[in-house]
Amino acid sequence: MKSFNILLVFLLVVFSCKNEKFTPFGEQIAANGAINHEKMAVAYQDLKVSDTLQTKFSGKVLDVCQSKGCWMKLELSDGKEAMVKFKDYGFFMPKDIKGREVIVNGQAFVESMSVDDQRHFAEDGGKSKEEIAAIVSPKKTFGFIADGVLLKE
Question: How many beta carbons lie within 10 A of that of residue 118, not counting itself?
Answer without folding.
Answer: 19
